[in-house]
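Running this now, will post back.
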Amino acid sequence: MMNKGLLIANLDVQTWTYILVGITFALYIGIAIWSRASSTKEFYVAGGGVSPLANGMATAADWMSAASFISMAGIISFAGYDGAVYLMGWTGGYVLLALLLAPYLRKFGKFTVPDFIGDRYYSKTARIVAVFCALIVSFTYVAGQMRGVGIVFSRFLEVDINTGVIIGMLIVLFYAVLGGMKGITYTQVAQYCVLIFAFMVPAIFISIQMTGNPIPQLGFGSQLSDGSGTFLLDKLDGLSTELGFSEYTEGSKSTVDMFAITLALMVGTAGLPHVIVRFFTVKRVKDARKSAGIALLLIVILYSTAPAVAVFARTNMIETVSNQPYSDVPQWFKKWETTGLITFTDKNKDGKIQYVADETINELVVDRDIMVLANPEIAKLPNWVIALVAAGGLAAALSTAAGLLLVISASVSHDLIKKVFNPKISEKGELVAARLSAVGAVCVAGYFGIHPPGFVAAVVALAFGLAAASFFPAIILGIFYKKMNKEGAIAGMVVGITAMLLYMMKYRLGWFDAALPSKNEWWFGISPEGFGSIAMMLNFMVSIVVMKFTKPPPEDVQEIVENIRIPSGVNNAINH
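Update: finished.
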């Protein structure tokens, strides 16, 4: 018996990863088979009968993508204080969504965001524009998820990143196409359990190791356990300044850009179609509110831990590799080198790794997306913990990718084919169209995963900017301003998404210049990740101005808008 225990304890990381990833994938596939969709309502909104607890867990998993699990702590570990915009924007945005939008959209009772916009603005054109926006947002977002899948596979299963993306595509395709929203919902419940356990276990281990405090949220503000009396953050500040970086706890971004990015992430959250659709899966408006509250509590667990993980990873990495002989680097460094996500170039030929802020003499380039995944290895945690993080990263990426793929397939099959081009299509025909759309969406998503426009959090931040620029004003005005008409909404969405796309193409992708423009050329000093807030304001202004010069919406539409803001049961109470 003891020999068996020793054998299990001595399994290498790759074997553990095969075991844990294999178990979790088998679980996801089993759930998909058990909960396969047999109707369009089950495919789009899981039959509308999901409990608030299950929907809260599924929403949390849908929301906490590869950007939250893999990339957010990674970006904070490099940006320090500046990385707080992701914490503030994404959590603040979820509160905005829960309070301002979710209950009203649930009461409106449509399958998708384009469905809401098409009916609220009584226009096929509005529906088509909304479908286009949903596809742009979803494909941009899913590119980040597929890159996350590729990174995990390339390191822990030691396959090529492109092969990793293809494996991830096949798994998502199976349970998204078979189960639809019903399968995705219960798969996401399992994925939440996997990803939160995988994120918290190494964080607790490392917090105890570095500070003696088992609570990571308190550990990263505590004194080191080495008896020096130094606080961990003070030590990291010192290490950063010694290498020429700014102090970790001080920001370098302008206040304007910090505000713009935070606002874009917040309002982008409130306009994300794959999160909004989750509130259509519960029975009642009251359940939508409950599931939003449960999801927020579950999200806070990871989001409050991410800054601690960032500090642990950054401190450990600097101490482990900076100014160390390359010949003595630990095994984890060599493993990550094979993926191309960490590179060492011995510029001064002294055989030592020189990691400094000055790019002309810096010899180490680290992709920020590896920080969370490499953190347990750097800290020398047990192999099973390292493999657990890989399984958690895959759960986070696949849960969100599945939600996004469903939005894409529903937008094509329900909002375009059924509502615009072929209203007489049978339910069976629509279900086939939805599944074929999902297959096509997976292929496009895979392409973007293999050729991503940046690291995970940056790509995802751009998706939030696109959602802020297109959907948020149309949804807010559609719920709270009964005189907003189709002409205003269409013009606003077109102007908003066009402005955001052009800014992305110029300042993130460098499409219109021989070289990528520098940040000194940004409009008002606002980065592409923050420009969604400017594009959103343009959308609001254009919508309202155009509305003033065009005819108001029909009376029946204005009456619908009045009714969705009245709590369920009030009219009955008044009548009695």
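Residues 570-576 have pLDDT under 50 and may be disordered. More later if anyone needs it.
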